[in-house]
Design goal:
Elements lengths: L4 H15 L5 H11 L6 H12 L4 H26 L3 E2 L2 E2 L1 H5 L1 H17 L5 H23 L5 H26 L4 H28 L2 H4 L5 H4 L5 H4 L4 H19 L7 H16 L3
Antiparallel strand pairs: 1-2
Helix pairs in contact: 1-4, 2-6, 3-4, 3-8, 3-14, 4-6, 4-8, 7-8, 8-9, 9-13, 9-14, 13-14
Amino acid sequence: MERPVRRQALIDDRLEAVVTAIEPPDLREQVSRTTLAGGKRVRPTVTILSCEFVGGDPADALDFAVGIELVHTASLVVDDIIDRSPIRRDAPSAWSAFGHGPAIVASDGLLGEAFDHFSTDPAAMQSVTAAMVELGEGEAMELVSIPSTEAEYMTLARRKTGALFRAAAELGAIAADGDDETVAAIGEYAERVGVAFQIRDDVLDAVADPELLGKPTGRDASLDRPSLLQVTDLSPSAANQRARDQVELAIDALERIEPVDTEAEAYLRELAEFVVEREQ
């Protein structure tokens, strides 16, 4: 994917300013290391692009974009504890660097900072809260009730990954004062992109080079986690086609909106293609 560099620079600068102001210093160190260690910044970029796509000023969506990245990072800290994964983004994961207790505190700190960025807008709070409920349901579902069918897997993927993508896009449209139909359509686009992203993650966990991926592979099989490949008898190629099917539906949703910024539209289309082609 050709990265929208200007937008990512805005996000990274604002993220650094937020996390380096956290007190006390120990928490600041943990949160900074976790948040600023890299990452594709896909979700906050979706927030900025969605805002521009429907005619908003990206500056108005920047706090929402930073907030959604903090929520995502907090969820990764917990994921790594559950998975016992020692590596995240080519570096020690939070629990392996600081211990379980400090990692959980860092996750809580990230969520607190995140919700401070949504607190002034009721629509934004509603969107993110709904996504957090679904994310929690997805995490619980994964732990206690392994999907046994493709349909059950898709529900899990929507909750675990799609919901936060949906909130990221909805936040951008909310920042641009989009109407309800626009917010719903851009949210559907992003939710389906998120599901495709999760399916591609499953495939990469099974077939990718761990050095290129930046984290250990084979975790789904070793931990008996419900990847699409584990739940079904689909080949990696067939699973990728399922991801492409989601991308096609995502583009259908995007096309229900009359674009104001065609550059942002092109990036959103490119992102949808990127999630099923990425190698990391």
